[in-house]
Amino acid sequence: MAVLTEEQSMLKDAAKSWVQEKSPVSAFRKVRDSGVELGYDAKAWNEMAEMGWAGVIVPEEYGGSNFGYLSLGLILEETGRTLTASPLLASALGAASALILGGSDAQKSEWLPKIAEGAVIATLAVDEGPHHHPEKVATEFKGGKLTGKKTFVLEGMAANLLVVSAKGPDGIGLYLVKADDAGVKRQRLHLADSRGAANIEFSGAAAEPLSGGAATLEKTLDRARAGVAAEMLGAATQAFETTLDYLKTRVQFGQVIGSFQALQHRAAKMFTDLELSRSAVEAALTAIDNDSPDVAELVSLAKAKMGDTFHLVSNEMVQMHGGIGMTDAHDAGFYLKRARAAEAAFGNQAFHRDRYARIQGY
């Protein structure tokens, strides 16, 4: 496990207290049942922004705290525990990273303070098909205008600013597009995990390029991938702990079901996988903070391992809870659905195993 600073420990404790008090799973259930278009509670997001969470990775000169990616990962882990839906991943991590890495001084000055205070919600618009293939880009930037389509854009309906990948004069790069531009058309998607997402079409939308081209895109995506993995770690950990509590209290055949050796073995498997996954996720976040040369390798390792682990734990949560685990009245289904959506976000296990192997030279 990563050795946390005093500030990081305080941040983690504050996040844990807030999600338990203000954003339990029951709060997510209310958002789901309300059918709100944004896919999250705007009031809860405002509270998160007021606590400074939206500016954790933003440099101090642009209104943030510059606490780094491991610190933001600790917050995402806690929000993942209660399945808290918010723009934290899309805006405060994904889009903010793109601006930090490739934005000009003017672009940073215009957008980062607004993102840090939660006044503007930004997001990445990268994929153009059902699967994550960032290198397959048909969207074009020509004459200051953007034309093309993007699919499964996280927080796509809520976003004020879109960071879009497109083919330009010098190859693939990232471009800033205001979501209220006349050339932007959004279609709300209804995903299994009930989070906010949209398909977006660009028809001559005004766009500004970020610097760095494909390198900035890849670095930005790696930061988003590590963030998703951190959130998945929190959700998988909570799913395991909830299941473990059930094994200790549910009585069948005259004894607590946790006394059955077969279930003990399955619980031990989940525990060891979670510990390995935690090490991988924290290593990836720490590597980003240290600007290590092996960031891509560690991020793909973390996302692939965390995907496998969350898949396993969410399945076991439903099965070990028996009949009640199959009902919507229980929270188990929420964790299973979130697992499937998070696995696909920014590359599933197959994508990252292949990427890891290529980085290793295989």
Set out the fold topology.
Layout: H1 6-22, H2 25-34, H3 42-50, H4 69-81, H5 88-102, H6 105-116, E1 122-125, E2 140-142, E3 145-154, E4 161-168, E5 171-178, E6 184-188, E7 197-206, E8 208-209, H7 213-249, E9 251-252, E10 255-256, H8 261-289, H9 295-320, H10 322-325, H11 332-344, H12 349-359
Parallel strand pairs: 1-4
Antiparallel strand pairs: 2-3, 3-7, 4-5, 5-8, 6-7, 9-10
Helix pairs in contact: 1-4, 4-7, 5-6, 5-7, 7-8, 7-9, 7-11, 8-9, 9-11, 9-12
Kindly report the average pLDDT value: 97
Unreliable residue stretches: none
CATH names the topology of the largest domain as Butyryl-CoA Dehydrogenase, subunit A, domain 3
SSE run: HHHHHHEEEEEEEEHEEHHHHH
The secondary-structure class comes to: alpha+beta
Instruction: Count every beta strand, where a strand is a DSSP E run of 2 or more residues.
Output: 10
CATH class of the largest domain: Mainly Alpha
**CATH-wise, what's the superfamily of the largest domain?**
Butyryl-CoA Dehydrogenase, subunit A, domain 3
For the biggest sheet, the summary is: 4 strands, mixed
> Which sequence of strands runs across the widest sheet?
1-4-5-8
Domain unit count: 3
- Straight-line distance between termini: 29 Å
Tally of DSSP helical segments: 12
Strand content: 5-15%
Shape: globular
Helix content: 40-55%
